[in-house]
Amino acid sequence: MIEPVQLPDAAALGPALVLGLTALIVFVFDSVRPHEPDRGLLAGTTATGSLLALGVGVWYMIAGVGVPEPDGAGVISLFDGQLVVDQLALFFMLVTAIVTALVAIASYDYMDGHAHQGEYYSLVLLAATGMATMAAANSLVTVFLALELASLPSYALVAILKDNRGSVEAGLKYFLLGALSSAIFVYGISLVYGATGVLQLDLVAEAITGETGQHVLTGNAHDVAGHDGLLGVGIVLLLVGIAFKTASVPLHFWAPEAYEGAPAPIAAFLSSASKAAGFVIAIRVFTTAFPVEATAGLVGFDWSVAFAVLAVATMTIGNFAAAVQENVKRMLAYSSVGHAGYALIGLAGVGAGANELVLGAALMHLFVYAFMNTGAFLFVALAEYWGVGRTFADYNGLGRRAPIACVALTVFMFSLAGIPPLGGFLSKYLLFWGSLQAGMLFVAGALVVNSALSLYYYSRLVKAVWFEEPVTDHGSLAQPVGLYAALIAAAVMTVVVLPGFGPIADSALDAATAVLTS
């Protein structure tokens, strides 16, 4: 009888390792023929590596990796607890791999004729590796390192269209603001370390609650109560850094500039995968390191209330700003800000009861959002490929020339608005129900009002492509295989995710329960 192969613990990072290894393979392929890149080989390798990472992640979840024993294989701790692979980590690794695969497939056509093909796909994979590692980070140091691994390639990707002034300008602005937010974040880390003497998230929690963990007893003990002001300022600075990464109000102003100047597939990548990665570190850091009641009692600062205020402000300002845009890409950018507000409800509910339900609903929304938002930006990429302008009027009448693509766009718009029977409806409904269960009536009301407002501007785009007369004659429209394949795949998943929502909901609730009870 053949004994099963026992994989090393490091293999638990399989999805992130596959993405990183694929980036190195793309580097090698590009170095062989640097002046004559094989576009199909580079895009195909990137998509294959992303799908392989997705397959590994699904395999691990089915096998019970990250599920506490005896029900599963157990949560795997690596490098003395600096990285941890649990259901939350695997859930977000899947989201990252899905978006990366869709972007790689769409980029095959979109990047046709552009220089720096090898660099483009390598940077996408390196950014995805950083995002996947962010999901497993269990120390403020590894959180920061993974955050920078995701951010640095992203700055270059926004500015990769060297002949496009808007792309270069957007990349520079994104880099400068990102550097500032990173400085604020790392300063917050230093203050938390100064107050607690530890960086590992669970040990920070032990220091705050007064529990005596082994590492605290071996030379790192601190009188946290005597440094409560230091700790409070550190927590606020961490929140500021995370608010920038998730494009939350008032640190959202970089998003419309970056998304508008970036190649449309990169805008999809940043607004979906990067946003999800920002939320996973927010969830990991605040729910693990800063227990709500103990932290509020020590520093007089209830961070769940801060997230509730951020949620309402972000969804409201994002949706109102989106409603007045005439540029489709900027409308989607501000729409993504609004959806950041919806996801923030999950963290707001942690201190208000119904913890697992609200946080699990936020995870479900981010999963569905990966398909519908990526698909919406990929339609913009298709329009740019056709040479269509960026205003609503430029999209007039596209439904008559490209009905399949416009059906997909309609699916994305109505799902983003939360119209049944599409995936976005159920995730918003669960957020609403969870908010009511947690007693956050004002947040629930803001969610309903903002969803109704979003239907207005999403419907404007649907009306333009199907019912308005074209301003200009675009002639015959090409049907690029890669862009169409990614667009249709995202649309199909947006539709079928609702009848198949059971496993997704179970995984999200398991991930939320695991991180809240760890």
TrEMBL record:
Residues 137-454 form the NADH:quinone oxidoreductase/Mrp antiporter transmembrane domain. GO terms for cellular component: membrane. It is found in: Membrane. The chain crosses the membrane at residues 12-29, 41-62, 88-108, 120-137, 143-162, 174-195, 230-254, 266-285, 305-324, 331-352, 358-383, 404-426, 438-458, 481-501. Keywords: Membrane, Transmembrane, Transmembrane helix. The keyword Transmembrane applies. One of its GO terms (biological process) is ATP synthesis coupled electron transport. Signal peptide: none annotated. The keyword Transmembrane helix applies. GO terms for molecular function: NADH dehydrogenase (ubiquinone) activity. InterPro entries: NADH-Q_OxRdtase_suN/2, ND/Mrp_TM. Coiled coil: none annotated. It is a multi-pass membrane protein. This is Proton-translocating NADH-quinone oxidoreductase, chain N.
